[in-house]
Each structure stands twice: as C-alpha cells, then as structure tokens.
C-alpha cells in the first residue's frame, strides 16, 4: 500500500498539469511534464508527427454533409489522400462536442491538422484517416497577405532563438500554429529524442495582445497514451484565435 502511495505522489510530482493546455499566465516549472516520464513508444511516435509534414493535412475549400458520429465530419473520397497515402479514401474529423461539428456541417471549410490511421474507425470496409479539429471557415477568412507571427525561444530563461510562422487565415486554429512551431522546434532542438536532446521540460505560450482575450499554453511533454489517437486529442476542441492578436513564446528547460 505504501509503495502505491509513493508511486502516486511521484507521478504527481513529475507532471501535475492535467491538460495539454491551460488558460493560466505561466506554469511553474515543477508542474510541467518531464520527458523522462514519457514512454519510449510515445516519444518515437510524436517525434514523427512533428518532424516533417508527412502526416500534416493542409486542405482548402472542402465541404461535407456526412457524418460517422454526431461529434465528427466525414469527408468522402478526400483528394489529398492521393498525394499522401493512396490506401485511404475518407477523412474523419473528430471534435470534442456535437456543437462544433454542427457549426461546420455543410459549410465550405479549410482543414489544417495532423492525421493518424491506427485506431481510426470509419465506414465499414472503407479505409479512413482521422484527425482532431483543425477546421476553420473558408468564406471571408482569407488574408490578402500571409500574417507573420513572431516566435521567441527561451532555453533556461535565456533567449536563444527567434523565428516566424505564417498563416493565410484571419481566424486560425491553435493547432495549425502549434504544429508549425512544434515542428520547427523539433527539427532544431530534437525535443522528443531522448538520446541527443538535453531538453526535459517546456511549453508553448500563446500571448494575446488584448486584455479581453485569453492567453494560454501547451505543455510540450503532456503526452496522453502512446498513439496519435490518444495524444492528438489535445486538438479536439478546435480552439480558434485571431491571428492578428497573438505572438508566441517558447520556454525550454534542461
């Protein structure tokens, strides 16, 4: 019994953040999830998701009036699959609620997200790829020029890098920006490589320039489960922000 209690206390100490992102000012370093507590299989899988664009969907001007369940949208014979993986025919986009699904049902949308195939279930005998969220309206949401969003990187509280990510959307999902930032970080700092990277903790902070809009962060090592169908659920709320209202800071700790 004592051993079980010690294990529970130890796990809480390792990672007391119980969500992928939180609407707080800044987390305490001791509350962030630690890479050493993440399973090797999970690190291997998430490393591939944020290393190249192999599993990234970036599709514009699509529409569907079909669903598999009440909380998703089902895109039939999705054309991007020909260029990515011809074995798939459909794309299922899943959300955290039916209200989000209804908002985009039957409307022309854009999709930007990470897709997965393991444990993705579509219609009977139809090979389907899945993603969580990443949907924005297409109509009246395009910018005349791409919006540049500044990203500052701090390692052990020292500014070590700055770069730019862009979007062509007025309203953009946090997922799109998170994917772009995380992929850049992973290529430079090998975030999810246990052997070659000294980064043990970190988070991506979305800073709002307006006092009326929330700032929030993603814990880089909050990784639920070992497979994408579990850890990519952080995007199923389809969180959307105004691209003109945010800049991004990244905090890495060794």
From TrEMBL:
Residues 55-136 form the Staphylococcal/Streptococcal toxin OB-fold domain. Transmembrane segments: none annotated. Residues 154-252 form the Staphylococcal/Streptococcal toxin beta-grasp domain. Pfam families: Stap_Strp_tox_C (PF02876), Stap_Strp_toxin (PF01123). InterPro entries: Enterotoxin, Staph/Strept_toxin_CS, Staph_tox_OB, SuperAg_toxin_C, Superantigen_bac, Toxin_b-grasp_Staph/Strep, Toxin_bac. The keyword Nucleotide-binding does not apply. Residues 1-22 form the signal peptide. It comes from the Bacteria. Keywords: Disulfide bond, Enterotoxin, Signal, Superantigen, Toxin. Disulfide bonds join 120-130. GO terms for molecular function: toxin activity. One of its GO terms (cellular component) is extracellular region. The keyword Disulfide bond applies. Belongs to the staphylococcal/streptococcal toxin family. This is Toxin, beta-grasp domain protein. It comes from Staphylococcus aureus subsp. aureus MN8.
